[in-house]
Write a structure and sequence with these properties.
By secondary structure, the chain is of the alpha/beta class. It is built from 10 helices and 17 strands.
């Protein structure tokens, strides 16, 4: 880093290229918790060889696709023999739950005979913590058990045994060993344990004086500006926001917060260059959580309510597609030098939104699970509940 008169330089390695800047934003994301420390020291190098981490996402997609190709080849080679496939997902957050459900649906056709019966001894074990909200916990439990996914609560992995290295399939004897001594065999292990600070933080940032907390997150103010260097910004998983109003805690490491921080980040970067006043990013207290089940249904949660059915999946699919459409060339904002950045693309607007239902009807609609529910009507109800506290209270009062 090098910015004159801002105490932000520090190239102690002559082999590194030095880049001058006026303002810089580090948005480097995170790594999978439990596989590395913030100092880039592997807890156990063999763990990486035997698990598929969710971070970085590019590696996750590639390794799952490779595993799937190997499964198809094995299926074709052994024909009528049973396939010994044991998939374990470690982690009980949204990613772990959704991956367990998604892989179950994606690989089930590969692991079934033409009559639909499985060709594997067991499919999936999900290790996860208990949810605080009992309704959420019950909805998730029902979703995974209905799809023959075994569940183990509040488990901690002590180590992973890679098995027999001489085995041609490199699967013989692979097992997860829990702290209580339980051994769980696996052929495929998805590691979805949440976020840990990127090793780059300690290896580069801390050495150069950029303020990090004890876990390696970049410390920033609500303006997304480093607490130690006013020319350095950070957002998303890699940052922890301090001094939020009303003693609000920094938001969890979830994509929705990174996306919503984007408009504030770009506005403040330009304001910094113009020497204008910076604005604060204030994270929302809660958000709509939607987990697909892999069979064109989904479970969701908002305002303490579990949402279930095909309409929830349709809503998730619609929101996801809307977000991806933002990055089509024709939808990108026009950039003009020194002009205000157009942030309207980040605000989801539905044309011709249906009328808001009366609270009693809205309460009934949100608890329905049948295929006849119109997801746009339900979404409109949820947004009105978000924006209108009285309407929200009235709707919730009708739901037992």
């Amino acid at each position: 880093l090098k910015r004159d008169n801002n105490n932000c330089s520090g190239n102690d390695d002559e082999s590194l290229e030095e880049v001058n800047f006026d303002v810089v934003s580090f948005d480097i994301g995170s790594t999978s918790r439990g596989l590395t420390t913030a100092k880039e020291e592997d807890v156990d190098q063999s763990w990486r060889e035997h698990v598929i981490p969710t971070r970085p996402i590019s590696d996750l997609v590639r390794r799952i696709e490779n595993a799937e190709e190997e499964l198809i080849l094995s299926r074709d080679n052994i024909k009528d023999q049973n396939m010994n496939v044991n998939v374990v997902v470690v982690g009980g957050g949204a990613a772990g739950i959704e991956l367990a459900l998604g892989i179950r649906a994606r690989w089930n056709p590969i692991l079934c005979n033409s009559d639909g019966y499985g060709r594997t001894n067991s499919f999936s074990v999900l290790l996860f913590r208990a949810e605080r909200n009992s309704k959420m916990k019950e909805a998730i439990k029902n979703a995974v058990l209905a799809r023959d996914i075994q569940v183990r609560h509040s488990s901690i992995v002590a180590t992973i045994d890679g098995g027999d290295d001489d085995d041609s399939n490199n699967n013989k004897g692979k097992r997860i060993i829990l702290t209580d001594g339980t051994c769980i065999p696996f052929t495929h292990c998805i590691w979805a344990t949440g976020a840990s600070a990127h090793p780059l933080a300690n290896n580069a940032f801390r050495k150069r004086g950029i303020a990090l907390n004890e876990r390696g997150w970049i410390r920033v103010n609500p303006t997304l500006q480093s607490v130690s260097h006013d020319c350095v910004f950070a957002a998303g998983d890699c940052a922890i926001i301090e001094n939020l109003p009303n003693q609000q805690k920094s938001p969890p490491k979830a994509g929705v917060y990174a996306v919503r921080a984007g408009p504030t980040l770009i506005e403040n970067l330009m304001a910094f260059l113009r020497r204008d006043v910076l604005i604060d990013y204030v994270p929302q207290d809660d958000f709509l959580k939607l987990l697909m089940c892999g069979d064109e249904t989904a479970v969701g949660f908002r305002f303490g309510l579990p949402l279930q059915g095909r309409w929830v999946w349709q809503l998730k699919d619609h929101i996801d597609c809307m977000f991806m459409d933002l990055f089509k060339v024709e939808n990108l904002p026009v950039l003009k030098e020194w002009s205000e950045y157009d942030k309207s693309q980040y605000d989801a607007v539905v044309e011709n939104s249906p009328l808001v239902l009366p609270p009693a009807e809205a309460g009934v609609l949100l608890t329905r699970t049948d295929d006849a529910v119109d997801y746009e009507v339900a979404w409109n109800v949820l947004r009105e509940m978000r924006d209108n506290e009285q309407y929200r209270d009235d709707v919730l009062a009708t739901i037992v």
